[in-house]
């Protein structure tokens, strides 16, 4: 389901299922990898074809030797990959001296120290507050800005019907100035050149790309 890349190292694929549910599926996974050589980023991503159950997210935790697991990020169907900054412990000078005194290397070194990356599939309602707390801790807006769930218009307090009315209103107001009467012999109905509609759509699409939520505000401009 998941894979991990530590810059400068081969891609990690040796994922371990930590638990097995009655249906035979697992919700908790782990990767183990050495702390050496030192790294400061981890890339976690879905393998092709991976889709999480609705209203869930993949919470990401890391554990260094002698420490507890710590939440560091999350993935979701709308956010299938993430580059996460980490701070693994470094060797101290005293540890280097101890290793030099141990000619046989029996005391171990950083290459034998292993970190564990845990991935747990959890309800979005559980993961989202952890992301918010992580953002507050790191002072980085990029953490909580990676939305776990793409909210529907209803969740944002606006109905699909209202959105449709605003889109139609935008088109009508823009195209009204281009209308002209047809041949009186054909009823004299007002017509709008096709190019006018194409111009409206280009302008409308450009605005959506620049400000995707403008239609969801209570008093959007209606000129497209």
The biggest sheet, with number of strands, parallel, antiparallel or mixed sense and barrel status, is: 5 strands, antiparallel
Radius of gyration: 27 Å
Approximate shape: elongated
Tell how many strands the DSSP assignment holds: 10
Number of domains: 2
Helical amount among residues, as a percent range? 25-40%
How many helices does DSSP assign? 5
The average pLDDT is 77
Given helix and strand content, the structural type is alpha+beta
Weakly predicted, low-confidence segments: 103-108, 142-146, 151-155
Strand content: 15-25%
Strand order of the largest sheet: 2-3-8-5-6
Question: What are the secondary-structure elements, in order, as H or E?
Answer: EEEEEEEHEHHHEEH
InterPro entries: Hikeshi-like_C, Hikeshi-like_N, OPI10
Protein name: DUF775-domain-containing protein
Family: Belongs to the OPI10 family.
Pfam family, one: Hikeshi-like_C
């Amino acid at each position: 389901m998941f894979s991990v890349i530590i810059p400068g190292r081969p891609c990690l694929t040796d994922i371990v299922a930590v638990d097995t549910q009655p249906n035979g599926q697992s919700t908790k996974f782990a990767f183990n990898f050495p702390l050496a050589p030192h790294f400061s980023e981890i890339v976690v991503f879905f393998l092709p074809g991976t889709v999480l159950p609705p209203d869930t997210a993949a919470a990401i935790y890391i554990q260094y030797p002698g420490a507890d697991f710590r939440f560091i990020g999350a993935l979701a169907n709308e956010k299938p990959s993430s580059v996460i900054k980490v701070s693994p412990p470094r060797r101290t000078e005293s540890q280097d001296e101890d290793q030099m005194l141990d000619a046989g290397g029996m005391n171990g070194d950083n290459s034998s120290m292993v970190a564990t990356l845990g991935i747990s599939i959890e309800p979005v309602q559980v993961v989202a507050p952890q992301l918010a707390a992580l953002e507050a801790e790191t002072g980085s807006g990029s953490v909580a800005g990676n939305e776990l769930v793409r909210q529907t218009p209803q969740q944002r307090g606006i109905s699909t019907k209202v959105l449709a009315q605003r889109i139609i209103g935008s088109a009508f107001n823009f195209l009204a100035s281009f209308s002209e009467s047809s041949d009186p012999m054909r009823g004299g109905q007002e017509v709008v050149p096709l190019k006018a509609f194409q111009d409206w759509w280009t302008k409308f699409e450009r605005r959506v790309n620049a400000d995707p939520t403008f239609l969801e505000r209570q008093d959007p401009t209606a000129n497209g």
